Structure formats: C-alpha cells, structure tokens
C-alpha cells in the first residue's frame, strides 16, 4: 500500500506500523530515488519475516511531482493487514488521535 500523506496522517500510519512490533524499527527512511522508496524497497521488505514500512519521496528530483505537503509511506501488504487488525485497539481510539483527526477535517 502506498500513501501520499501530510505529516498528521503520516504520524498515524507511522505509529500504527510500530504498534505490534517488539522494537521501534518497523518504519525506515532510506536514501533512494522516489520510485525506489515507493516501489522497490517496500517490495524487498515484503519478502522479509518482519516487513517494515518505508518513508519516502525525499528525493529532490522527484519532489516536484508531488504536493509540497506530502511525503509517502509504503507498506508491504502483510504488514498493512496486521495494521488494519490492530486499529480497533490502538491509539486510534484515544483522545490524542481524536485531536489530530479533528484537525485533519478542518
């Protein structure tokens, strides 16, 4: 799954990606071309035992192709399915996330 997202949305996806992990390294931000961080590296992660999400679109040559307030987070499908399963018991049901969600709707 590839999400083009502003910081508030990225923070939620980042936090949810780490929710069920034994370490705080479920998301990584490698140096790479825009297409590598969106496609190649997440595909590589999909084959690992504990796939990680990839933050991307920091490539200055690719930045003009996306809205200035967006970065990407690409999540291998097995990881994304676990994240969806965790949603109902995660921070998404807290008042802290409600404040962010309200801010997003403005």
Task: Write up what this structure looks like.
The protein is α+β, with helices and mostly antiparallel strands and 106 residues long. It is 42% helix and 13% strand. It has four helices and four strands. It has helices spanning 7-18, 34-46, 77-86, 95-104; strands at 2-5, 27-28, 53-56, 71-74. Strands 1-4-3-2 form a four-stranded mixed β-sheet, with helices on both faces. Helix 2 links the parallel strand 2 (27-28) and strand 3. The chain is flat, with a radius of gyration of 14 Å. The two termini are 26 Å apart.
What is the rounded distance between the termini?
26 Å
Which blocks of ≥5 consecutive residues have pLDDT under 50?
none
Form type: flat
User: Structural class, judged by helices and strands?
Assistant: alpha+beta
Tally of helical segments: 4
Strand ordering within the main sheet: 1-4-3-2
Beta-strand portion reads: 5-15%
Give the biggest sheet: 4 strands, mixed
Helix percentage: 40-55%
Q: Return Rg in Å.
A: 14 Å
Number of DSSP E strands: 4
The ordered string of helix (H) and strand (E) elements is EHEHEEHH
Return the average pLDDT rounded to an integer: 95
Provide a brief overview of the structure:
The protein is an alpha+beta fold and 106 residues long. The protein has helices spanning 7-18, 34-46, 77-86, 95-104, and strands at 2-5, 27-28, 53-56, 71-74.
């Amino acid at each position: 799954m590839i999400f083009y997202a502003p910081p508030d949305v990225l923070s939620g996806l980042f936090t949810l990606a780490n929710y069920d992990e034994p370490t705080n390294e479920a998301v990584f931000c490698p140096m790479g071309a825009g297409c590598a961080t969106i496609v190649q590296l997440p595909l590589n992660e999909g084959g690992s035992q504990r796939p990680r999400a990839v933050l991307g679109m920091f490539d200055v040559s690719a930045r003009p192709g996306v809205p200035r307030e967006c970065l990407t987070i690409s999540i291998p499908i097995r990881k994304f399915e676990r994240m969806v399963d965790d949603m109902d018991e995660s921070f998404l049901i807290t008042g802290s996330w409600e404040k962010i969600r309200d801010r997003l709707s403005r």
